[in-house]
Amino acid sequence: MHPQTKAVHTGVYVDSAYNSVTTPIYPSSNFYFDALGKTRGFDYTRTGNPTRGALEENLADLEGGKHAIITSTGMSAITTTLFLLKSGDHVVAGNDIYGGTYRLFSSIFPQLGVNFSFVDMRDPQKVSDAIQPETKMIWIETPSNPLLNITDIAAIAELARKHNLITVADNTFLSPIFQQPLALGCDVVLHSTTKYINGHSDVVGGAVITGDDEIGENLKGLCNALGTGCSPFDAFLVLRGVKTLPIRMQVHQQNATTLAHWLVEHPKVDKVYFTGLDTHPQRDLITQQQTGDGGMIAFEIAADPSKLDAFFGALDLFLLAESLGGVESLIEQPWTMSHASMGEKGLAESGLTPQTIRISVGLEHPDDLVADLER
Predict the structure, then answer these.
(1) pLDDT tens profile 345-354
(2) Which pLDDT belongs to residue 255?
(3) Catalytic one among 46, 66, 103, 283?
(4) Is 195 among the catalytic positions?
(5) Among the options 96, 170, 187, 234, which is catalytic?
(6) For 259-275, how does the pLDDT look when each residue is reduced to its tens digit (9 = 90+)?
(7) Exactly one of 98, 102, 196, 273 is catalytic; which is it?
């Protein structure tokens, strides 16, 4: 089936009593046994829940995987995945990743003995040079947040296989509709389902998906042990949102393309970052591994950073907020908002500046969005 059909139908029909066309919410914290050691598939919601199970089936199918765990937030998805490692292990990651991920990698897991090297992932040779005897994982975020740098997923996955490393790809920016990291050789793909997969700015969640049976069983055990699974209500909301994901992604992309081309021509914009521009330095790679360009744009505004409040304050449709992937358009300054936890050194190494503006382009009419920015 095509992704548009899978998104609507996979995992949905779990109601055998009344044939509900939507997945019911099973809010029960526990499920009683028919006899000792005999259940009907579930015993305790931290371990598993029918509503969450339906979403797991749906997202695993969309990503071309076999196993999925659905977590309470995107960060809990990342945290659960990192617990595949042990003290003394080492991870190679990009130097321009999401600020919350960077904070976890630079400040929290090193306290547990897991160490990280941050490199320019656009160059596979730099990734190779960063691999140590203790390296166990390569962490890919492509397109990167927010400068939309591209990592060659297939090349990094091949490099990882040579060294027997796990490759993890954060696919939040493009969703499984526009990019399939597992098909390109990755072992694990993850999402903040808060973003495009849910798409309505009314839930936080995460997902980790793999086609590897051993990794899949380990992740399920970790999710249960750590208690990082999402609630049945949140799973219901995400399963509702994913049904329109393929259609929404097309409109996000169309609107972002219109805005990006308009920004390129604007005299008060110094540089535009968007994977759909022919001027993107990695455009050939983009067309090889992506089937779409998503709805994220960043640009360098030609303005004194101290005057950005005036710019943001003049907007009516773009909301000054840190998230992304919802139906409404959002705008932010990563330097002081989504990436502030990187610190000035990390920010500078990532390529961000105080003039960098990130836009999550929503589903409004593009003419209205252009008019809002122009004003």
Answers:
(1) 899 889 999 9
(2) 98
(3) 46
(4) yes
(5) 170
(6) 999 999 999 999 999 99
(7) 98
